[in-house]
Structures are given as C-alpha cells and as structure tokens.
Amino acid sequence: MYNQPIFLQPEFKERLWGGTKLKEIFNYEIPSETTGECWGISGHSNGSNQIKNGPLQGKTLAEAWSNHRELFANEEGDEFPLLVKILDSKKDLSVQVHPDDEYARKIENETYGKTECWYVIDCEEGAEIIFGHNANSKEELATMIENGQWEDLLHRIAVKPGDFYYVPSGTIHAIGEGIQILETQQSSDITYRVYDYDRTDKDGQKRELHLDRSLDVTNVPHVNPFLEREHQLEAGVRTEMLVEEAYFTVHHLSLDGKSNPITYENYQLFSVLDGEGNITTGEGIFPFTKGDHFIIPATVESYTIEGKASLITSHSNK
C-alpha cells in the first residue's frame, strides 16, 4: 500500500504579464524574467507534474491518475480534476471569463469548464483585482464592451495579503499588477479574453479577444458569492474554511506545533506558502518546506503534520 506523501515537481509557464517573484518568494528556478505561473499540482495535458519521490518517482501525476486510481479514492473521471497554481502578475492580466462544464464540453470539446478561487499571498500597496461587472443585461454588457466603457463596466477591488476570492465560471475577472496568488481551480486551460488594454506582443500584434464566447458565458447580472471564513483550532493547527462548493473544498492551515492524528478517506492537495515542517505516516517522516506541493493519497490511513508553516489544502468534491 502507498503510505507516503506524493511530492511534485512544479511546472512553469512564461507569460506576457509575468515577472520574477516566483524566484524571489519561493526560490524556484524559473525559466525567465517573465514567468507568470507555477503549476504546482497538475495532471493537465498542458503541464502534468512529475513525481519526485516514492514508488512512482519519475512518473507524472496524469500517469498516476490513469494507472493507480486507488491513490485517489477510485474517483471517476478521465482527467485529474483540480489544478493548483501560484501566479505572479508583474503586469495586469487580461480581463477574462471562463465557461462552465456544459459549454466547455459542447463548444471546446474539453472535459472541464473553469471555476477557480484565489488566495492572495502578497501584493503591492494599492494593488487591485477586477471582479465582476455593472451591466444589468446581456444587451447592456455587449454595448458597454463595444463602446469601450471599461471604467463604468468593470468592478475593481483593492486587495491585501490573506484575502480570498471565489470565482465561479461566468465571472468577469482579472488579477491586477503586483499581486501573487495561489489559485485552486478545475483542471482547465480555457480562457476567453474580454479586454487586454490594447497591448501588443514583441511583434506588434494584439492578443486575440474572444468577445462572442465571452458574451455567451458571462453571468448577468454579476452577483458576489457569499463566503463565511469559519475557523477551528485543534492541537497545533488552526484550520480556516475558505470555500466549499461543487468542485472543490479549500482550507488555509496555520501550523504551529503538531496535529492530532488525521484520518481521511479522500486524497488531499497541499501547497506550502511559508515555513516548514514534517508529515509523519506509518512509513516514515517526510519533511516539507516553503514552495513545496504534495498530495496525501487516499491510501494513507493516518498521518500527523508538525512544524510552523502556512499551507493551502484542498480536495475534489466530484
């Protein structure tokens, strides 16, 4: 029986809006000074993580999902359902929106749409996100987009470290410059750009917009999701519920000491935002540190977590 954490090698993505904070904050070896994304836990075909330890060392998470489903509580589905990223926005991301599952399958021939959520790790003073819009009908939304009424249309929110946002499919959104977030999302890479600030690439070309599909999938009117960030303290762990919804449940863990033994029938995803510690299972002691990403498989009957650290943990609700 597989009785240890599965540690994953991050995948990095260069982006027009990326920077160097992934190296500065997490000491990652990034490919360039425009590195926008660390895919920390991914089985997606555009970047499946390699396993760093244990019997499956050298295999990818996608291969583990296909061939060792017992590690994932025999969950159904052809693809690993979640994707966990850390993003560094040196510049503004495009204003965008994502489809739901039904639209993704019908129009894109993809398994999943994209519902996501953001935990703000750090940001510059005065940093903002775009979250939602002010149109009251599809017709008004189309008119305001056509007329370029971006200041009237888009809803801007100032952010600070520790903020959390749940972003269901159909929500117009953008991460502003100077923000680093951890994003937990469905395993999808479908993005429809609504507005890109008329930016051009190195060849002087504007990036493609997807206005028809954006209008198809955008929720109108926009409604802010209600979140109640409840927390509990047990032994050395303060657990804060961030969101529990159809696709995933996400918690923030503040670790200061040693937990009681944890038993859980499902598999759990962990990303270490700060600090260090150990996971202890029946097979041994496994250290973790800032920037690590790992999975506790369903085959681990019991474990303890110990140290001083800040972590985001999640699991699938499929």
From TrEMBL:
UniProt cofactor(s): Zn(2+)
Record flagged with keyword Zinc: yes
Catalytic activity: D-mannose 6-phosphate = D-fructose 6-phosphate
EC number: 5.3.1.8
Molecular function in Gene Ontology: mannose-6-phosphate isomerase activity
Occurrences of domain Mannose-6-phosphate isomerase cupin (ranges): 240-315
Principal EC category: isomerase
Keyword Metal-binding part of the UniProt annotation: yes
InterPro entries in UniProt: Carb_Metab_Reg_Kinase/Isom (IPR051804), Man6P_Isoase-1 (IPR001250), Man6P_isomerase_Firm_short (IPR014628), MPI_cupin_dom (IPR049071), PMI_typeI_cat (IPR046457), RmlC-like_jellyroll (IPR014710), RmlC_Cupin_sf (IPR011051)
Annotated keywords: Isomerase, Metal-binding, Zinc
Any one Pfam family match given in the protein's UniProt record, by short name: MPI_cupin_dom
Residue ranges occupied by any Phosphomannose isomerase type I catalytic domain in the UniProt entry: 7-108
Domain of life the protein comes from: Bacteria
PANTHER family: FRUCTOKINASE, TRANSCRIPTIONAL REPRESSOR MPRA
The family this protein is said to belong to: Belongs to the mannose-6-phosphate isomerase type 1 family.
NCBIfam families: manA
Protein name listed in UniProt: Mannose-6-phosphate isomerase
Protein's organism: Halobacillus shinanisalinarum
